[in-house]
Write a structure and sequence with these properties.
Layout lengths: L2 E12 L6 E8 L5 E4 L2 E3 L6 H13 L5 E14 L5 E13 L12 E8 H7 L3 H18 L7 H17 L7 E5 L1 H4 L9 E6 L6 H17 L3 E5 L12 H12 L6 E5 L13 H17 L5 H26 L7 H7 L7 H14 L5 H9 L1 H17 L1
Parallel strand pairs: 1-6, 9-10
Antiparallel strand pairs: 1-4, 2-3, 2-7, 5-6, 8-9, 8-11
Helix pairs in contact: 2-3, 4-6, 8-9, 8-13, 9-10, 9-11, 9-12, 10-11
């Protein structure tokens, strides 16, 4: 029988996007071994990875003024425990940012020094190669935001922290239930004023008191902190519990399969693999996305807010199409738009790839020109039709 452990840790970076400094801790273990590590530790009973990461930063580095900024993914490995028992461990990693470098290392745990290092020095100093990989992911997110620059949203950080803490209480007693953060809010490319904070919950009856409370928690937190936010419940088959339409079923299944990659568990337990069936009808999914985009663009909108909402939703369809193509080919590839564009390099001149690149540039510039967003959105149906044709041609070869 395999013994299982779950931990969480954080890459903690200063707010300076152009020259971030990374927190590392020098530790002398009981064996006398010296190592340089990031704050990390085991989850306590009933604790979510997000809360555990924040607690470990506070306990090991004495740093409490940190802000959630992105989810970096899950590290998983196996080993033999001290008593010879096979063991498996997962470590969920987050990116936190901070405006202060004042730290107090926990000397009773062997932490003798806290250092703030520039990225190249931090990469050389870190004792564990696995952390270097998470550091690289964090720096990729920071580099993307530095181009504008687009500071990490403090409003989003407060929203996520509140929802995570209150959701943990709301779902207590529901075995296997959990709440996740997905989309741009998890990937680190959240653009304030444009992006939504998307939450997903699983293993909860949609009419239960806990489910109703979760909706209230997300709504109240969004009203308090500012970013638009939504919560969707997954059914036992990985679809949308509210039976909204095929589009939501498709997105729900995709999001659940990304837990541990770019969907973060912020309350409760992770979903089981049985709740995430494999999706194979790519052409059918693209048809669903195309129908949604055409219907939204055909609607007549006069108010600027309605025009913006239509453009956002249609461009979200574009993003979903690109990510579906990538997850079918390389399931563990990052789904930030730049990475999706790179993963589709086999179609260098396809309209979908070019449009994804243009949309990424639009978001990175702040996403504040509605007319430009509408021009991009108008290209989406054609790009989806062309992509389906390319898929059909590939299938016939």
């Amino acid at each position: 029988m395999t013994r299982r452990y779950a931990s969480a840790g954080a890459v903690v970076a200063t707010d300076d996007l152009n020259c971030p400094h990374i927190l590392l801790l020098d530790q002398v273990r009981k064996t006398g071994e010296r190592q340089t590590v990031a704050p990390k530790g085991r989850l306590e009973p009933g604790e979510s990875p997000l809360h555990a990461a924040k607690r470990e930063v506070a306990e090991e580095a004495g740093l409490t003024d940190t802000h959630y900024s992105a989810y970096l993914g899950q590290e998983a490995y196996t080993f033999i425990d001290n008593d010879g028992t096979p063991a498996a461990k997962t470590v969920d990693w987050f990116l936190f940012t901070t405006a202060t470098t004042a730290t107090t290392p926990a000397r009773d745990e062997g932490f003798v020094q806290a250092r703030w290092l520039e990225a190249p020095a931090a990469r050389r100093a870190a004792s564990h190669p696995q952390f270097q990989q998470m550091l690289d992911r964090a720096l990729a997110v920071i580099t993307w935001r530095a181009a504008r620059p687009l500071p990490f949203s403090r409003k989003l950080g407060r929203l996520v922290n509140q929802v995570g803490a209150e959701a943990q209480v709301a779902i207590a007693g529901h075995l296997g239930a959990g709440v996740g953060l997905c989309g741009s809010a998890a990937r680190g490319d959240f653009v304030e004023g444009w992006s939504d904070a998307d939450f997903i919950a699983w293993n909860l009856p949609p009419t239960s008191a806990a489910a109703m409370t979760l909706h209230e928690i997300v709504g109240e937190a969004a009203q308090r902190h500012g970013p638009r936010a939504s919560l969707h419940l997954a059914d036992n088959h990985g679809g949308a519990a509210r039976r909204l339409d095929p589009l939501y079923d498709m997105k729900m299944r995709t999001v659940l399969r990304r837990v541990g990659l770019d969907t973060a568990v912020i309350a409760g337990a992770a979903p089981t693999s049985s709740a995430t069936p494999v999706q194979t009808d790519l052409a059918g999914d693209l048809a669903i996305l195309h129908a949604f985009a055409v219907a939204r663009l055909a609607a007549h909108h006069r108010k600027e807010s309605e025009r913006e909402d239509t453009a956002r939703r249609v461009l979200s369809v574009l993003s979903s199409a690109g990510r579906l193509l990538v997850t079918g080919r390389a399931p563990e590839v990052s789904l930030r738009l730049l990475d999706v564009v790179e993963a589709l390099r086999e179609w260098p001149d396809s309209e979908l790839r070019l449009l994804l690149r243009d949309y990424d540039a639009y978001r990175r510039a702040g996403a504040n020109d509605i007319e430009q967003a509408e021009r991009l959105a108008a290209r989406v149906p054609g790009a989806l039709v062309a992509t389906r044709s390319m898929l059909n041609e590939s299938a016939s070869l």
